[in-house]
Amino acid sequence: MRNLLRILAGLLAIGVIVLPVVAVLNGWIGVERFPFRRLRIEGELNPGDAAEVRATLAPLTRRGFFATDLHKAQAALSTLPWVAHAEVRKRWPDEIDVKVDAQRPFAYWGKSQLVSDKGLLFPRNDGMVLPKGMPQLDGDPRNVADVLALYAKSRELFAATGIGVNTLAQDRRGSWNMVLSDGTQVVIGRNDAEARIERFAGLMPRLVAQQGRPLQRADLRYTNGFALVWSGAPAAGDRKPGAAKPAAPETTPAPALPAPLPLPTPIAFNADTSRIPFHVPLMAYRIS
């Protein structure tokens, strides 16, 4: 009797495993009987992101609840450039749940891209809700880490002056250029960029105080000085960088300067505070 019960239990276990497979193969529990009717998306999304998730999953979920491959669905979502991580689950009887972690923009990159807080480039789409105060960065996409590193160092060096770094770019020749939050254009050059910025940032407050007028442009490519253009002063010709000595500072007392422009609130790179809140409620979409 016991042997018979064991045999029956074994056959039942085999049936539980085999029957669903046979049923799927024969279409017994296909899309006609167990279709997905709801798509539930959880995440901080921009306008249009939910529609893109729906369009990506629609062809992969047509086979119904039991035949849909969640691994393929998750892999398809992960290929979207704005998606950092995605999880896909089924919820009985007719719902598929998606949790999406979107790339968090840290800065503009070039004309049509963004760079995330993890140093990854992704497209800038129309309708994106972006935080204010993001810097404008540019350069060879292969050198994103170098651009971010120099930006972080530059912002740190200028922080003591109450001035932010709005723009940092590296051209095809490897030469660096910068625009500060007070509008000053800074030509850095190719070599020793960090050392040049550090020297200039340390002297800039004193130079501005001595002149008593805003600085428009600074060329740091000189061996032992800077070429400076001041507001309202004639430009000093287009001299090529060389071993020029800095001009002697004026000793006339400078008038009181206005309060420095407020430092923008850029997001700290690779820090917890860099998480950008896109407050989007949980959305449910019906798959047709």
Q: Which class best fits the helix and strand makeup?
A: alpha/beta
Architecture (CATH level 2) name of one domain: 3-Layer(aba) Sandwich
Strand content: 15-25%
Order of helices and strands: HEHHEEEEEEHEEEHEEE
The CATH homologous superfamily of one domain is termed Cell division protein FtsQ/DivIB
**Cα end-to-end separation:** 54 Å
Helix content: 25-40%
Protein model, in words:
Residues 237-259 are annotated as: Disordered. Part of a complex composed of FtsB, FtsL and FtsQ. Its main location: membrane. Residues 34-103 form the POTRA domain. Pfam families: FtsQ_DivIB_C, POTRA_1. This protein is of the alpha/beta class and 288 residues long. Among the domains are: 34-102, membrane protein fhac (Ubiquitin-like (UB roll)), CATH 3.10.20; 109-230, Rossmann fold, CATH 3.40.50. Helix content is 27%, strand content 23%. It has helices at 2-25, 49-57, 70-78, 144-159, 193-211; strands at residues 38-42, 83-91, 95-102, 105-109, 113-116, 121-123, 136-138, 165-170, 176-180, 185-189, 215-219, 227-230, 283-285. The chain has a nine-stranded mixed sheet, with helices on one face. A four-stranded mixed sheet has the order 2-3-1-13. Helix 4 (144-159) links the parallel strand 7 (136-138) and strand 8 (165-170). It is elongated and about 105 Å long. The chain starts with a helix and ends with a strand. The relative contact order is 0.13. The model is unreliable at 234-240 and 243-288 (pLDDT under 50).
